[in-house]
Amino acid sequence: MVELSKAATEAQRQPYPRLLVAVVLALLLLLAIASLGGYRDLAAARQRQDLLETKIEATQLRNEELARRIERLQNDPAALEHLAREQYRMMRPEDVVIILPEEPERKIAAQSVAD
């Protein structure tokens, strides 16, 4: 009779360990799936951070370049004159302007680009 009670007790205890193993495996599977999504999010965030750091560096370099240009234009009359002549096509009253006709190749290229 002792043997029957031991067998009955073992039969009753077996479903719980199997159920516990199944629940633990299911939780581990869910944890693995969630961590994969988190890893992808982390990789995307790092990539975005690298892109933003590159843009920040480029912007800082551009700001330094513009600060140097402002400095030159405020303190160097030759730089200011060069800008006025090149960009705004200004001239001194004593300057003589000679306007040359465009080359035919340039006209053809300009027309084909416009079309």
Description:
By secondary structure, the chain is mostly helical. It has one domain. It contains four helices and no strands. It has helices at 2-13, 15-75, 77-86, 104-114. Helix 2 packs across helix 3.
Task: Summarize this structure briefly.
By secondary structure, this protein is mainly α.
Helix run count: 4
| Regions with little confidence, pLDDT below 50 for 5+ residues | none
Which percent bin holds the helix content? over 70%
Distance, first to last CA: 104 Å
Structural class: mainly alpha
Write down the secondary-structure element order. Answer: HHHH
Mean of the pLDDT scores? 82
Shape: elongated
Question: What is the domain total for the residues?
Answer: 1
Question: What is the strand content?
Answer: under 5%
Rg over CA atoms, rounded to whole Å, is 39 Å
Largest sheet: none
Q: How would you summarize the topology of this molecule?
A:
Elements: H1 2-13, H2 15-75, H3 77-86, H4 104-114
Keywords:
single chain, mainly alpha, 115 residues
